[in-house]
Amino acid sequence: MVPEVQVRQAADELKKLLRPESEEDAKVVQKGLMLYRQGLVHHVKFIGGSVWATVQDVTPVRVYVSLSNPEDSTCTCPAYGFCRHRMAAFFHAYSQVDSVSDWVENWRKPAKESQQAEEWGMKKAKDLMKSRQSDSHDYGRWVEEFVDSFEEIVLGQGKPTPYVIASLLHAYMRKVRASAPLQQEWKALYELVGNLYAFKQLTILSEQLGHSGETVDRYYRYLFDTLEEDIEDLVASLAVHSLPFDFDPFMEELKLETADLVEREDLFNYERMNLYRMLWSHLLKKKSWRDGERKRLEAFGDGKRTQAEEIALAHQYFLAHQDRDTLEHLKKLGNHTLPFTFYWIEELTSQGDFNRAGVFIEYMTQHMRNAVVQMGNYHQARDFTRHALRTSMPYFRSGGREDLYEKMLAQSLPYSFIEYEDFLFTKGQYDKWGELFTYTNFESLSVPNDKIKVLQKEDPEVLLPILHQAVDGLISQKNRPSYKQAVRLLKKLRAVYKKLKRVPEWETFLEKLLDRNKRLRAFHAECERGKLIEPKVKVEE
How large is the angle between the packed helices 221-239 and 165-179, nearest 10 degrees? Predict the structure, then answer.
């Protein structure tokens, strides 16, 4: 049976995951479609809300597609992210419930409109360049140009639809780069301010258009990441050399811009804070400036700051090496602010200051359990856990406390299951590894064969509860593919009992299992086919 509702859900999720304007994503869809249409997807099974298939490419690959969250799918090919093989397997599943051609056409439609919008935006940008006035180093003039250009290019054809905003912004940014002064320092500063105003104007536009978080995430959230990365590169190029005195008035203006960033609260609080912290960490480095900003924020008084201003104050404490004040301030705000520690940990590990980094990692570990519980959403908690572990890894690799790493893994279960089971297995803690599997009720199908082989040799008893649990789960699904998989696992289970010289226990278990499921004729048939039991002999009359 094809799970139609789940397949359609996966179709909607993939439209969010893959962007038609991305050349890389477009290739994934095109090549996946080609593999599907050539009939290279076979041995397809629907098991527990997922699709299992083999895709014959240059070499055959095994694919697992999670219908509830396609991003968590896997493939034995080396590609990173959602590859053409997973796409082909999805198309095969989708073809059972609807038209694949219609899905592809609907997915590509925004890309066509985006291309048309970008062409119009580029033409408008060229017109603006022709009418541009002289290159003057005047902050007010710069801002005026940025605002006018944004309105002409992005809003020139009226309110833009969500899926053309990216193309129009690209045209605007090309105009900014083309208008920059020739001198390298001034060019970097001009583009920095241009990117900053693109960020501000884009947040205002999103609010004016009434876009929800889901709409922003689907169509143009990534633009804020791109602007942030560009600003980071520009800040780095400016920070390499001592800034000329002529820059001082511009730095004063940028200080005001950072204050404006954290005054507001909207869908982009996290991005606002990243920009604020980046500018104050790497560009606005004068002690007098930082002291003044800290006092400005403190003067508001408790309860009178936006959340962004609260994090800004914590960052000023961080810059002043007042780590205790930073963490105490964060603690008052609540566990929902825990993701803001990632930035500080990354800063400290990149500087090689592992002693300070350890303080922040320990704080994060202490509060991880409550933080992930409060999130409620599995995927959000999983993303948070994965980011926390990745951010902290340089500290642990440098010789940081291994016990703290294991504590972090334990505190974030079940979201850290993949990393924790690998950690325990690598350490040879097989009993603990087995307990983890049964505790989380994780699918044993995901245990790599190489690990099973190691356990069969080193500690076969660990496999018993895992295989028992998996067999029960598969039989309960009551479909032929699940029964076949259950029989395969039962054979492995029989081999383990034989190795442990506990064959009578195996025979008793199998007898009770068959009796308990005596009404499941298809399961008994699979057991006969797999030679777990002798076929019933028909008595002739």
Answer: 20
